[in-house]
Structure formats: structure tokens, C-alpha cells
Amino acid sequence: MIESSQKVIISIVGPTAIGKTALSIKLAQYFNSEIVSADSRQFFKEMCIGTAVPSEEELNAATHHFIQHKSIQETYSVGDFEREAISKIKELHQNNSVVVMVGGSGLYVKAVTKGLDYFPEVDATIRAELNSQLEKNGLASLQEQLQQLDIEAYNTIAIDNPQRVIRALEICIGTGKPYSSFLTNPEKNREFKTISIGLNAERSLIYDRINQRVDLMIENGLLDEVKRLIPYKDLNALNTVGYKEVFEYFEGHTTLEFAISEIKKNTRRFAKRQLTWFRKDESIKWFDYQTDVEEIIEFIESQL
């Protein structure tokens, strides 16, 4: 077991719909610990079904932090999360040497375990020009530009999020260097050891699980949830898979059937990006998603 003086984060990562929540609860119960969520889509209290927030039963099975603690109308950056999460982890470590962290948002996981990367200041006019290009020519033109300037960033960032694409492009243009070249800064010293567990499965199986989850979201009332959010559809938090496709349907641009197929397709793409991001981290120990929890616990204890 763990020495009380050794502070540990067990970080559970992997693609969407793979079973991270279920594993995090089992580990939190075993280590009598609490869970820090690093899923940036689950921070917002107005978004529940489309972000696959843990069920009431799951939330009651272990204490969770950073789930639906913000409003979509508040600005909340990865830097804000890093500060608040580190502070919460420090507080939790006073009572228990183990904290479980779970989430598929690679940048947010990295912010906690290794710290955020440093980016040089660039001329503000570049962002203004990119925003104007977005308005005139749409997101596809910016994605194409990023693909040419920095293929690595194109393959790993949330390419459907205009803010992320513009951020990467302004760094490429403003510094003359790829955005991805700034993602290798020295890690911050943390007061805890991180043990990273990755869950994975055959690609076709991940895709099947995603398709089933989307069907379940529709059954559980995703359309009503999105309908209530129409007045806020231009907020950045809602420019995300599962919401933007349904907004298109409500605006009469697509059929419901097409909107659902787009959610499935875009979620599959998101899962592919998650895996591309996490596979770069050699410290992650990967397990098949059906691995018995005892085997995972055995591995964790062997690392302590």
C-alpha cells in the first residue's frame, strides 16, 4: 500500500465512451479517495446529456470535483482550471495520499500533471485578421491553413473549435515556428507523483460504443437540452460536438437523422484525436477497457 508521506495522483485517460468514469469510481472506492474531473466539457452545469456527465448514482458512489461547477456564461480557461485543480488536490492530499483524476481533455490533464506550456506574445492584429477570415471564409479555410503550417497541431488539437485553431495559427504566424514546437517546455515540479492509466480498445469497438452512447443521449432527451440552450448557441462552451449539430437541425439546415450521424462522426474524430494526443505520453500504462480492476490496482501498487 501507499506510504502516507507519498502524495499520488492516479490519472485515468483514454478516448471518449471507453469506461473511464466507471474505473475512476472503483479506484476512488478502493483507495478511499475523491475524484478530480479533467473533462472540460463537463464543467458546465447547463450541459449534461450531451457531455455524458456521470449519473446521479455515479456521483453518489464517490465524491467528484469540477463537475458542473461553472455556467456556460462564465469564462473559464485551462489556466483557471490548472490553478483551481492544483489547489483542490493539495487540500485533498491533506486527508488522503491518493487522489484520482479522470478525463479525456488532454490539455487539461497535462495542465495538472506537468503544467501549461509557455507561448510567446504575438501581435494582436494577427488574431483580429484570423477572426475576420473565420467570419468571411469559415472554419475550413483556417483548418486548411493550419494543416499546411503545422500538421502535428492539426492532428491533435480540437480542430472543430475555432478558438483553438485561431490560437494555434496566431502562434505559427506570429513566431514563424509551429505551434506544436512550443508544447515541449520543461515540466513544472509537482508535489505529487502521477501514475497514468490509459484505457483502450480496438478502434471498431470504440466507434461502436460511441454510436451506442449517442443513441442513448437522444433517448435521454438531448434534443430538449439543446433546445433550451438555443439563446446561448454562440457561446464558446456550446461550440462543441453534440450541440452544434443539433443547433444546425433546429435552424432547419439539416434533417434530424443527418444531425445524429454528424454527432457520431464528429465524436469518432474526437476520440481519434484523444488517442493521438495521449499516445505521445510514454508514461501512460495502457490497459484493455475490459481489464479486471484488480489487475490495474496491482499495477498501481507496484509503482508506489
TrEMBL record:
Amino-acid positions noted as binding substrate in the UniProt annotation, renumbered to this chain: 16-21
Q: Which GO terms describe its molecular function?
A: ATP binding; tRNA dimethylallyltransferase activity
Q: State the UniProt keywords alphabetically.
A: ATP-binding, Magnesium, Nucleotide-binding, Transferase, tRNA processing
Gene3D superfamilies, alphabetized: 1.10.20.140, P-loop containing nucleotide triphosphate hydrolases (3.40.50.300)
Q: Where is this region: Interaction with substrate tRNA?
A: 39-42, 163-167
Asked if the keyword Nucleotide-binding belongs to this entry, the reply reads yes
What name does this protein carry?
A: tRNA dimethylallyltransferase
EC number, UniProt record: 2.5.1.75
From the record, what ranges are coiled-coil? none
Q: Which GO terms describe its biological process?
A: tRNA modification
What the entry lists under Pfam families is as follows:
IPPT (PF01715)
Q: What chemistry does it catalyse, as a reaction equation?
A: adenosine(37) in tRNA + dimethylallyl diphosphate = N(6)-dimethylallyladenosine(37) in tRNA + diphosphate
Q: Where does ATP bind?
A: 14-21
